Amino acid sequence: MIRKIFYAGIATAALMVGAAHATETIVWWDFLSGGDGIRMKAMLDEFNKEHEGKVKIDATTFEWGVPFYSKVQTSAAVGQGPDVMTYHESRMPLGVSTGTLSPLSTDELAASGIKSGDFGPANWKAAQGPDGKQYGVPLDIHSIILYYNKDLLKKAGLLGDDGKPKGLDGVANWDAALAKLTANGVSGISIPGDNASGWRIFYTLLNQQGGEFLKEGKFLDGANLDKATATLAEMNKWVKNGWAPAKTEYPASIALFTSGKAAMHINGVWEVPTMVDLDKKGKLFDWGAIQIPVLFDHPATWADSHSFAIPNRAGNPVDPAKRKLVLDAIHWFNVHSLEWAGGGHVPAYLPVQESAEFKALKPNSDYVSLAKTAVFDPVSTLAGVASPVYDAAGNFVVPAMSGEIPPADAAKQMRDDLQGQTK
Amino acid sequence: MIRSRRNEILVAYALMAPFIAIYAVLFVYPSLKMFALAFTNAPLIGPGDWVGFKNFQRLWSDRLFWTSVWNTCYFVILSVIPSTVLGLVVAIAVNRLTGWLQSLVLAAFFLPYILPVSVVYRIWSWMFDKDFGIAQTVITPFTGGEHVSVFRTLPLFMPAVAFVTIWWFVGFNALLFIAGLRNISCEIYEAAELDGAGDWTTFRRITWPLIWPITALVMTIQLILQLKIFDQVYLFANNVRTDATMVMVQYILKQAFQMNKGGLAAAASMVLFILIVGVSVLQFQLLRAKGER
Question: Tell me, which fold does domain B62-292 have in CATH?
Fold first, then answer.
């Protein structure tokens, strides 16, 4: 009897080893939590189901920001870590400078069906290092948008017949609209008081004036400083006049909007699922979302990209056969990125971005125009997600908006702080 | 006789060997490496060139570093003595209770201590939330109806974080004090009572001197712990105004993991290490001297 069990055990083990050989495992790390995390998990399940017996992605999610990027950098340096990982395009200059990312050759990209022509030029270029090599493949373009409460805008006479806001362009109109919407305990707008949100709005408005945050190694040089001051003064005006509550925590700013206590809200496209879900449960008013209005001279919106990259594992590189599988998987996710767009994002892959299905997707199609005038973070090892530039936004932009530091001083201090860190 | 003594020494060394080996590999060696790193311009990972005292000069002239030193010391002042005193008060009060009521009250005070810092942060950031927090009902009568963003108002930041920290640790301190109080023989109290000593005299003349060693211990533990303050400050600042609220461990983290400056971070770590050793040895000596007087 015992002998029988013993042989059965050996046979099972042998079978399992055989099976393990047949299925290749891709180790995957990402920083996608919340709605993005749930959506990506569904896509990963779909991928694994479709490739059952051949390829299996073994995914782990880490904490967004500094924790994720520290982990990736330290593990790559000691030859550990994943076969593929998500990476913000804005963070690539730093990743390349620390040798964390492995370059992708045009040939190996092409072998998996990935071509530069399938992506927007600025979007594709943002994943290149100073050496001109490609270090990542973008999955999406994500940005900030203006969420609005149709009922409240209608009451204030700011809603057009097409259900979209009217008369918000230009600083004078925008300010007048905020003043009109602020009444009966309702604020005109709610804005998350975190550093990242402060940066995104500041960078959007600075670029609407043609301002350059970083030019030839100099932060806010010359006239750019005045444009930065004008931007901060405008943001401060919203709080000073009581149109926007000051120092609002990120979740509270969303709650102010969804509970009807703020008529408008500026936040990332990644909060679209929050609104869609509430709407589905019948707990939300009639809402919409559009590209950030043109307050200054011309349209421009801050944007970043979630992209995929292969880590440069020192002494233990991802072998060529595995790289092929990884790039195949990356291409699969781009081809299937309509599902990812459900998270509010704009697909980076043009065949999907220009497809009829995406054009019919609401509310994305109401703000997809932003992709054409999107401005990516300055290319610098000091810029990008969770970078010193983001910290500087927390130290100077956010307090300038809430009135703790006068706008002109904040702009100067931000310039000096960042310039000091280039040494 | 000599041989057996030699044997004993050998056995002692054999028994100590595993600890010494682990201590050497996991503490002494990395510490020495870090000291060496402090004199190089190494990035976070990989070797660097010898630069002498350049990192220390850089720290000396870095305004942010001095802000972090000041904030760390300020936090220690705000938290160490209040949490020790409050621990003693709670211990004396709890000690007067008896039976299940005593256990219940002690558990209530001790409960916060078992919470991880992330939960502590969540609880208090919700309580104090500017727009929806329950604590605003307590704050608004003092401000004329104005809601206050406690953790986003610079002068309130450190006191508020210290308040939360005291709330978090007071149960642990109280537990140590209760252990100390129970060690004081009740015969002494009975004798004092017979001599007609009042509550205050009993405390001044009996409890206070006899509990002093525990007080010194609690204060030293708190001092070392609070000099290493990081988690709460990092979480409550929430990436906003981090320069103004930066503490030393956070400065080290920023230099090492964000700025990729391993050498400079090691130098800052060395300064913190020396500060902790210096201050705690000094404090313990002072407290002991006072106790022996």
Answer: MetI-like fold (1.10.3720)
